[in-house]
Amino acid sequence: TVPIYMMQVFDRVLSGGRLETLLWLSVIAAVALAVYALLDAVRDGLVTQTGQWLHRRLSTRVIKATLGISRGGGTITLQPMLDLRLIRTFAGGQPIKVFFDAPWTVLFLGVLFLIHWLFGLIAFVSLLALITLALVNAYLTKRPNADGATAERRSTSVLEGALGSAEAIGAMGLDAGVQRLWAERQDDADRLTAMGAERSSRCLAFSKFLRLTIQMAVLGLGAVLVLRGQMTAGAMIAASILMSRTLAPFEQSITAWNSFTQARGAFERIGRLLAAAPRLSDHPELPQPEGRLSFDKAVYGVPGRERPLAGPLQLEFEPGTIAAIVGPSGAGKTTLCRLAGGVWNPSYGKVRLDGAELGVWPPEQLGGLVGYLPQDVQLVGDTVHDAISRLEPDAPFEEVVAAAMLAGLHEEIKSWPQAYRTPIGAGGRALSAGQRQRLGLARALYRRPKLILLDEPNANLDDEGQKALREALVQAKAWSATIIMVTHHLGILQIADRVIRMEEGRVVADETGQEVLQRLKSIALRREGTVQQDPKPRLPGADPTVSANDRAKGQAE
Question: For tag attachment on the chain, is the N or C end more exposed, with fewer CB atoms within 10 Å?
Fold first, then answer.
């Protein structure tokens, strides 16, 4: 619009002297510019919405894939979400518009050839020069940009690890060490990023010099053609403006190229993540199970270790029973719990619920059947209600209260400032360790699941909490739940139907709770002298007051 308007004003209005011509030319140009502004606004809105749509479309798959990889023992990081942000920034921002503007170059180039073939030839050669410069820029910045992105991810991993161990870092004064390690990795990232930016800025500076020089050349050539009578002054001005519009997208592509390469690398990483993630079950929901859990030669191992963390395991757990898993640290107790809940997938063998492998159950249905309390309790949500209800939309309040009552926490919650709307902080950090554990227990008991897995549920509980835990397990047993519990505390064995002892990832004993208690009692009676009773007695494998001979005798019996 602007080049044609200027050409008509110079060649028609100024030579003809008619204000009517200027008026109608101005009206036509104003309408055209209004249409341009409207279409540009619509395009900007569509680009933004496309970026958001792409982010929503991919984020669900990426989160599921990340969690799926964690079931195979992989590490969960924030990098996939950062990659999604890079893609959204590129697809929904200014950089991608450069690629949309580039096709119009063909139209502008054709108009320049119509004005004069020399202008078209100059524009064509200039385009080739800018394209070559853009390719050179891509080549020079590819390695430092890629290495800088890798170094940036390594520095981010330091912060991720530090945030997960913030308490220990603060208590032991590791702040300086964390800062030093992060600074070293971040310095590498900054150095490589700066190297790429410096090379790109040089190419950009040369491209600006080239574009401005070409525009001057077009004006000079136009002046020569005007003096020879081969062109009008309006056409000369129009050619100069069109030349600028023709070259602009290719000059801007040099600055947009870095965003493009980052988005492409992020897209490739997400593609590899989705390809490596285990496929989720697409089976329809199965009939509600009774809760019978079985391990069929299940083994879980990790690369680099000669011995698996657990297995082979050949076990069956019946509904309405409480099984206590005991043994020294590193025996594989936690691994057994994670395999039972589908948190990890077995490397070999099968884990079945009512005869169907855990991978066959739809994740949403299986999640409603399992109540899981890990060692390190991390609560999800903003309030106590969110934490207990597992973020279930429109969760019935009476069900939340019932779970809290089962965990013996209802009366305490009522005394909190906002009761069930009390904020819990990120991961539950606003609560004490004992409160987090009991809230985690309430979450595990929410809606009375058929399979309850508790990993050291009484590690942070006082006497009142211990009593509430025992009562909750008795009630869960009454509704025929299958209960598997890792513990070192002797008192909880009084309600256990089975006691399974593990060592080095294998089951070495499978007895009833009464048999274990009787054996421990006989060991105590054979001790010489009087041994002061521990207020929280532990199993022989974990009690330092039990001699090695007594432990050997107990195991032999």
Answer: C
Residue keyed to tokens 């070559």: 132
At 475-522, the pLDDT tens digits run: 999 999 999 999 877 777 788 889 899 988 899 888 887 777 777 777
Highest-scoring range by mean pLDDT, 95-104, 176-185, 444-453: 444-453
487 vs 490: CA distance, rounded Å = 8
Q: Which of the 8 DSSP states describes residue 446? A: T
Cβ-based neighbours of 109, under 8 Å, separated by 6 or more: 120, 123, 124, 127, 246
* Beta pairing class for 293-300 and 310-317: antiparallel
Helical (H) or strand (E) element with 352:
strand 348-353
Q: Mean pLDDT over all residues of the chain? A: 81
Nearest Cα to 426, choosing from 416, 436, 413, 418? 436
Q: Helical H runs in 116-174?
A: 117-164, 166-171
For residue 15, the tally of other CB atoms under 10 A from its CB is 12
> CA-to-CA distance for 119 and 108, rounded, in angstroms?
11
Contact by Cβ (8 Å): 196, 255: no
Q: Which amino acid is at 218?
A: V
> Over the range 61-94, which residues count as b (16 or more CB within 10 Å of their CB) and which as e?
ebeebbebbebebeeeeebbeebbebbbbbbbbe
Instruction: State which H helix or E strand residue 194 sits in.
Output: helix 175-227
End-to-end CA distance of the chain: 97
- The order of strands in the sheet holding 451-455 is 370-373, 451-455, 482-486, 321-326, 498-503, 506-512
**Phi-psi map region of 355: left, alpha, beta (phi>0 left; psi -120 to 50 alpha):** left
* CB count in 10 Å sphere of residue 233: 16
- Strand-strand pairing, 370-373 and 451-455: parallel
CA–CA gap between residue 414 and residue 419 (Å, rounded):
5
Query: Using CA atoms, how far apart are residues 390 and 446, in angstroms rounded to an integer?
Result: 8
Contact 137, 258 (CB under 8 A): no
Count other Cβ atoms within 10 Å, centred on residue 137. 24
**Closest CA relative to residue 482, chosen from 465, 493, 503, 497:** 497
Q: How many CB atoms lie within 10 A of CB 243?
A: 25
With CA atoms as reference, report the closest residue to 520 among 337, 324, 332, 314.
324
Q: Residues near 378 by Cβ (< 8 Å), separated by ≥ 6?
A: 427, 428
